[in-house]
C-alpha cells in the first residue's frame, strides 16, 4: 500500500525539527542533566552548555550573550518584555502604542494593560498590511513609554519598517522603549536589534526547525525592565526557573543552522512562493493575494490567498485529504470564531477574509510539492465552488 503523501505548508505555525537539533537535545539530555545552578561539576557542565546555546542565539542577533534570556517561547518573551517594561517605566508615563495587527501574544498583553491604568493606542495598517511612519509619529507623545511593532506579520508576511522607528521615537518620545516581535523573521532574514535601536525583541525556536517550548528575549543593555515571575534568580533574576538546558541546546543548534543556511533558504523559498503564486494566478479565477511580492516589504516564507466564494476551513480540509497541510491564519487563534484582525485592518471584505488561506514554506519544501499543491487546489476550488453555487 502506497504511503500517504505529506506536503507541509504550515511552517509559520511550526516547523519540523532538524536532525541536528534532535541530536543536540538528546546529547544534552544524556550528558548535561545537572542543574545549572548546582556548584558541582555536573551543574557547571549544564551551565556551560546553556551558555553556549545563548551565545549562538546572541550571535545570530548580533548582540552579546548577556543581553539574551532563554524563555519558554515567543509568548513568554513578549509578555515579559511588555509587562516588565511597562511596570519598570510607569513613573515616566503611561502611554503605550501597539499596531492593531500584532500576534495575540502581544496584542492581548497590551490590551490587558488598560486595566492596570495604562493608556493604550493601536496603530492601523495600509492595504499591504504595513504601518505608516507618519501615523506612527503622530501617535507618539512625551509620556509614551513603550511602542510595540512586529517585524513580520504572522498571517501575511508583511515586513514592518522597524529599522526606521527609533529615530522617530527619539524626536518625540526619547524615553520610550521599542519592542519588536521577531518570531516570524528571526533566522529567516537579517534581524539587527542593536543596529536598529530596538530595546526589546522576542524570538522563538520552533519557527526555525528548533524545539517547541523554547524562545529568547533580547534586552538591550541598560534597558529598564522588571521580572514578572520570581524564584531562584536564574538568568540575572529576570527570568527565574531552572534553565531548560536540552531546549536551549536545540535552540542553539537551530540558530547555528539558520546562520549557515539563511541566504540559501531564502532564495529557495522565494522561488517556491513565486511558483505557487503564478500557479494559482494562472489556473484559478476570483482569487485575491493578501501577501505582497516585493523583497523588503513582504517575507516570501508566507503567502496568504483569498479564494472568493469559499470558506477557508472547507478548502483546508479538502487539501488535507490530499496530504497537503495549510492554515487559515494564525495557529494561535485558529480556534477563535473572530475573523482575522490583520485582514480586516487591511480593508479586506468579509468574503476575502472568509476565504483566506495561509501557505507558509520552509527550506524543506520542493518545487514538485508546489506543483502538486497547485493541481490539488485547482480541483478542490472547482469542486467546492460547484457545490456552493449549486
UniProtKB/TrEMBL annotation:
Its EC number is 2.8.1.7. InterPro entries: Aminotrans_V_dom, Aminotrans_V_PyrdxlP_BS, Cysteine_dSase, PyrdxlP-dep_Trfase, PyrdxlP-dep_Trfase_major, PyrdxlP-dep_Trfase_small. Pfam families: Aminotran_5. Keywords: Iron, Iron-sulfur, Metal-binding, Pyridoxal phosphate, Transferase. It comes from the Bacteria. Its cofactor is pyridoxal 5'-phosphate. Gene3D superfamilies: 1.10.260.50, Aspartate Aminotransferase, domain 1 (3.90.1150.10), Type I PLP-dependent aspartate aminotransferase-like (Major domain) (3.40.640.10). Residues 7-372 form the Aminotransferase class V domain. It is an enzyme of class 2 (transferase). It catalyses: (sulfur carrier)-H + L-cysteine = (sulfur carrier)-SH + L-alanine. One of its GO terms (molecular function) is iron-sulfur cluster binding. Belongs to the class-V pyridoxal-phosphate-dependent aminotransferase family. NifS/IscS subfamily. This is cysteine desulfurase.
